[in-house]
Each structure stands twice: as C-alpha cells, then as structure tokens.
Design brief:
- By secondary structure, the chain is mostly beta strands.
- It has one helix at residues 2-19; strands at residues 35-43, 50-58, 64-75, 80-81, 91-99, 104-113, 118-130, 135-138, 143-144.
- The relative contact order is 0.24.
C-alpha cells in the first residue's frame, strides 16, 4: 500500500510543478527621443543681463503646438543662478508653434537672468504639447543634445 502512495505522489509531482507560476521579469518600455536641443547663454546688448538661445529640432512625426524649456544657469563657481522672474531655481521659456516634424528652430530670449556671471546654461527638460493636447516631457534619453557643453558639470 505504501508503494502506491509513492507512485501516486511521483506521478502528481510533475503535474503540480506545472501549476507553479514562474517569476516574470517586467518589460521595460523604451520610448524614442522627442527632441534634439541645446541652450547657450547670450549677453544682452546693454550687458546688464543674460539671455538664452535655444536651438532645437522636432524629431517626431507629429506637430508640436508648444514647447516649454526648463533651463538652469550656473555661475563661474558652479552655483545655480536664479532667473530674473519668479522664485524657482530654473527659468522656464516657452515657444508657440506649430512646430512641424523635422523643423529646426533657433530662438533667443533676452533678460532671463539678472546676474552677469552666467557661464553655462543646462537644458534640463522640454515639455512638449502636441496638437491633440497630449503632453510629454523630454529629459534624459528623450532629450538629445548635439553639443557636449549643453549640460553644466
């Protein structure tokens, strides 16, 4: 009788093992880049303030309705410089479209920072509003830079 128990258990073990769920690794979704952009500080004509020039290209297949750029300026000792308006550490500048696929734009904003010691401007992120009203934020891998100096170290 004991032998039958062992045979039944031996036969059922593979069936029961098949019911155990295997650990499934989560799938990481990698989204394509949305924009290529760079930011450069520009000294105003009066030399009392610093502006910024943003060069960017729409690399998606959709039109942008607006693009909002988050920029952080740094002085010669690496400290962040507050923008002329607002209380945030970063300045926000906005460009209205439509900005068509493949379109390249160079846009300049003046009087962004009152401090004349701005040495570099970091383009931290770009908020893109598409024509259908959807919003996506480009940063890290979704924000590409053509020049290595656009991120301050």
């Amino acid at each position: 009788m004991n032998m039958w128990k062992y045979l039944v258990l031996a036969a059922l073990a593979p069936l029961l093992a098949g019911c155990v769920k295997k650990q499934v690794e989560p799938v990481v979704v990698v989204y394509p880049p949305l924009i290529i952009a760079d930011a450069t500080p520009i000294v105003s004509s009066t030399k009392r303030s610093i502006g910024v020039q943003v060069n960017f290209k729409n690399i998606t297949s959709n039109d942008y309705s607006y693009a909002r750029f988050k920029l952080t300026a740094y002085n010669s000792v690496g400290e962040s410089v507050k923008p002329k308006k607002g209380v945030r550490e970063s300045a926000y500048v906005r460009l209205s479209g439509p900005i068509t696929p493949g379109q390249t734009k160079i846009t300049t904003w003046t009087n962004t920072w009152a401090n004349k010691d701005v040495q570099c401007v970091s383009l931290d992120e770009v908020e893109i509003i598409f024509m259908d009203g959807s919003v996506e934020v480009a940063k890290d891998g979704r924000l590409l830079s053509e020049k290595s100096g656009s991120i301050c170290i």
